[in-house]
């Protein structure tokens, strides 16, 4: 018996690809991937990240989508459906719950960073970058972080933008947002890479990204690479499961998800190729500059290239759009559940959940100024911003992914899985099933345990 959903469906396989890519491609690719690579030694980190995407990310993403499409509801209720179908204890539904909570936690800091991008639309748009020196560009960013009022303003604007799209619903809100943005974003990244070839230190940037030096690798950075593979593919918290629920029944999950995974990876690597040549050509900048890396490196290019203001403005608009199509998928799982199970209308559910994230986000705004030294033991000696990022990317998402893989690999009826993937008799099905059953869970479990041991 097949389920039907109440929230509507994507008009075609392509719209699903666009929406899922919209969710996957975001600040994770353009902001987080470059600065994490910079902090964790370059090429070695990139290689581990690529292995995690191929061996864990893409197979688990297929598992997540297929649960969503089987249940045709919010992650919580889809988990309820497949748990019942498999005759398992209700505890498995916890995967859905953890996802909703993780989504709100991610949204709290995501919205603050997206706020930085919004602020830079303004900075570049008013032409104030033109001719600015690298050092002054760095100071400008520090000044922004030191100003809670500014951060709060842009954080709030972004939260409101997200809520508006989620409130509009699947077809009107989400489907149309991604169509224009993806190609444009990619094109402007390419322009920046070309700029870096001529005006940056392209060779150093390239070597930094792709030279593999084992000695730079620690368990901690392996866990970070693993966590980032989940974060960047929107995995382990139900976002992709929720989108899977709106996927047409006849679309092939395998091909679709591989496309999404490749697009996401290409965007991240291109962002790295755009940023690092500029970093190495401007000595005060360091690859390990941390979360500000994007905002202190690219404006250097915009300040000196012809029409840099216009191009810079377009670029930050595109980053904002990319963040926007991701943030809606952080809120969607919870909203879909409230509509299904708590008889909420979409709009109030959306504003309630986004409101919770927005409030939590205020602690992230203050993490860069008033609360910068507030690193109590109950936040594991981190600022609220770092704590939320750590808890979600490095714990909740990998754990969610681990449970999803175990559920699909060990407990779901293999015939149902095969049919849901439209993979009857497909040569690769058994290989995929083996990976999801053994390889992905063992790798995720191993990395988490070794990191724990390593940290004592
Ligand atoms: N994948 C998004 C990005 O890379 C972030 C995200 C994580 C979105 C988890 C949804 C769920 O920016």
3D structure, described in words:
The chain has 456 residues and is mostly helical. Helices cover 76% and strands 0% of the residues. It contains 18 helices and no strands. It has helices spanning 13-24, 27-39, 43-71, 75-85, 94-125, 134-145, 148-168, 170-199, 202-210, 219-232, 239-244, 253-281, 293-304, 308-341, 346-366, 384-411, 414-420, 427-454. Helix 5 packs across helix 7 (148-168), helix 7 packs across helix 14 (308-341) and helix 16 (384-411) packs across helix 18. It is globular and about 65 Å long. Phenylalanine (PHE) binds next to helix 1, helix 2, helix 10 and helix 14.
Reconstruct the topology from this structure:
Blueprint: H1 13-24, H2 27-39, H3 43-71, H4 75-85, H5 94-125, H6 134-145, H7 148-168, H8 170-199, H9 202-210, H10 219-232, H11 239-244, H12 253-281, H13 293-304, H14 308-341, H15 346-366, H16 384-411, H17 414-420, H18 427-454
Helix pairs in contact: 1-8, 1-12, 1-14, 2-10, 2-12, 3-4, 3-9, 3-10, 3-12, 3-16, 3-18, 4-5, 5-7, 5-14, 5-15, 5-16, 6-13, 7-8, 7-14, 7-15, 8-12, 8-14, 9-12, 10-16, 10-18, 12-13, 13-14, 14-15, 16-18
Bound molecules: phenylalanine (PHE).
Q: So how many helices?
A: 18
> Which class best fits the helix and strand makeup?
mainly alpha
Uncertain runs with pLDDT below 50, 5 residues or more?
none
Q: What general outline do the C-alpha atoms trace?
A: globular
As for the number of domains, it is 1
């Amino acid at each position: 018996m097949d389920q039907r959903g109440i929230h509507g469906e994507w008009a075609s396989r392509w719209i699903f690809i666009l929406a899922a890519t919209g969710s996957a491609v975001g600040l994770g690719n353009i902001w987080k991937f470059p600065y994490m690579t910079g902090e964790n030694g370059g090429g070695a980190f990139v290689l581990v990240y690529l292995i995690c995407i191929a061996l864990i990310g893409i197979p688990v993403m297929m598992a997540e989508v297929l649960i969503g499409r089987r249940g045709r509801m919010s992650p919580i209720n889809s988990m309820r459906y497949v748990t019942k179908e498999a005759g398992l204890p209700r505890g498995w539904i916890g995967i859905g719950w953890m996802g909703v909570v993780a989504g709100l936690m991610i949204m709290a800091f995501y919205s603050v960073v997206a706020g930085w991008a919004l602020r830079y639309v303004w900075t570049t748009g008013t032409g104030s970058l033109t001719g600015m020196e690298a050092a002054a560009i760095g100071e400008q960013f520090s000044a922004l972080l030191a100003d809670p009022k500014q951060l709060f303003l842009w954080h709030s604007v972004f939260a409101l933008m997200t809520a508006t799209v989620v409130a509009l619903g699947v077809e009107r809100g989400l489907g149309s947002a991604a169509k224009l943005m993806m190609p444009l974003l990619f094109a402007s990244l390419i322009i920046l890479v070309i700029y870096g070839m001529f005006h940056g230190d392209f060779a150093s940037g390239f070597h930094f990204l792709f030279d593999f030096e084992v000695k730079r690798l620690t368990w901690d950075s392996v866990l970070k690479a693993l966590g980032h593979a989940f974060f960047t593919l929107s995995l382990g918290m139900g976002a992709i499961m929720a989108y899977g629920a709106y996927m047409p029944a006849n679309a092939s999950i395998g091909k679709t998800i591989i496309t999404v995974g490749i697009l996401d990876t290409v965007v991240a690597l291109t962002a790295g190729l755009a940023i690092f040549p500029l970093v190495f050509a401007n000595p005060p900048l360091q690859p390990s500059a941390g979360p500000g890396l994007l905002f202190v490196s690219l404006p250097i290019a915009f300040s000196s290239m012809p029409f840099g203001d216009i191009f810079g403005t377009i670029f930050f608009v595109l980053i904002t759009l990319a963040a926007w199509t991701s943030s809606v998928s952080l809120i969607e799982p919870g909203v879909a559940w409230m509509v299904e199970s708590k008889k909420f209308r979409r709009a109030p559910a959306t504003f309630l959940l986004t409101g919770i994230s927005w409030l939590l986000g205020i602690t992230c705004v203050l993490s860069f100024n008033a609360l910068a030294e507030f690193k109590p033991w109950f936040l594991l000696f981190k600022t609220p911003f770092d704590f939320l990022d750590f808890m979600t990317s490095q714990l909740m998402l990998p754990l969610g992914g681990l449970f999803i893989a175990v559920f699909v690999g060990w407990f779901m009826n293999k015939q149902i899985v095969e049919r849901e993937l439209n993979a009857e008799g497909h040569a690769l099905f058994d290989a995929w099933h083996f990976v999801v059953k053994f390889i992905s869970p063992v790798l995720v479990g191993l990395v988490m345990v070794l990191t724990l041991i390593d940290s004592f």
